Description:
It contains eleven helices and 15 strands. By secondary structure, it is an alpha/beta fold. The chain folds into two domains: 1-113 and 296-360, P-loop containing nucleotide triphosphate hydrolases (Rossmann fold, 3-Layer(aba) Sandwich), CATH 3.40.50.300; 121-294, RecF/RecN/SMC, N-terminal domain (Glutathione S-transferase Yfyf (Class Pi), Chain A, domain 2, Up-down Bundle), CATH 1.20.1050.90. Helix 6 crosses helix 10 (272-294).
Amino acid sequence: MRLQRVVIDHVRNLHDVSISLSARLNILFGENASGKTSFLESLHLLAYAKSFRSHHFKHIVNKDADFFRVVCQILESDHQLIPVGIEFKESRLRMRAGGKNLKKTSELAQHLPIIIIHQECQRLLTDGPKFRRKFLDWGVFHVEHGFINAWRRYSRALKQRNAVLHSKKGRIAISHWDQELKESALVIHDYRQRYCEGFLPILQDCIRSLMEDRIDITVTYQPGWDISQDFKAVLDASFAQDSRRGFTHNGPHRADIAVKAYGVAAHESLSRGQQKLLICAMLISQALVYRNHSSKDCVLLVDDLKAELDQEHVARIMNLFEGLDAQIIMTATEKEALEPFYFDTYKTFHVERGCITEVV
């Protein structure tokens, strides 16, 4: 899967962007605040129907406009060309793909699997389980096609169970939702566990490629409850505690990936540069698993790769990127900051005051 022509209207400071991308490597360079990250944000909007910089669409719209729009042409692996677009206008978000209106963001995500490496990715290590669950579930969603339905079923049951807990109606009122939770929880766990069985060995290979062998890093999937016990029994045992709290304590919604170095949380034992290398390894591994399962490639967005890394480690990452055979879109402050390394096909673009121009 490749992005071809990208058209962007009124996203932050970008001005009437219309460019054709290389199928392999694309480097956008320019000064800080010139619009490089806004370009990556636009593609992220197109894939996720949300920004990695703001929770409010109105803050993304250029101050001189009343809407934003991002449209691109996607070349599928079967050489089919599919237009995909997103527009925010009059406080309403509209999504389209292949000439059809989309109602669910998951439909948009299926058309455009994007992985982004940027400064906020540090939260994978420093913040709570929520961010690591999102990371895990992106991979499971794109590999296990039944996952989204199981997750929706579980989420509905969890919402209803929590409402009953809050109302203090007792065990009888909650029994139906316990059964729904159990059935869907086991499906979700099975999908996640199977995904991790493929992901974790690939991750260790990537870690060895990017980091020194002497660093002892372990990554462990934690399902969110004691899986040695029947899940229904776990819910029964925690009923009194759940009733006091008003919410369900155990289940897939509490899952995590424990990332440790030398037996200690990675963000407490690794330097900032080492943390960035580890995060790059995690995200590149996710792209490799996606390719192995789907025979397709995702798109990688990489913002300011050189920050906190020396040239040797940048070269190691670029070497892994080249082996992905994926389309990569990167930003840098200077044209020379990211050499194309082993890439035979690449394009460079200069970004200045919101204008993006291909450098021929």
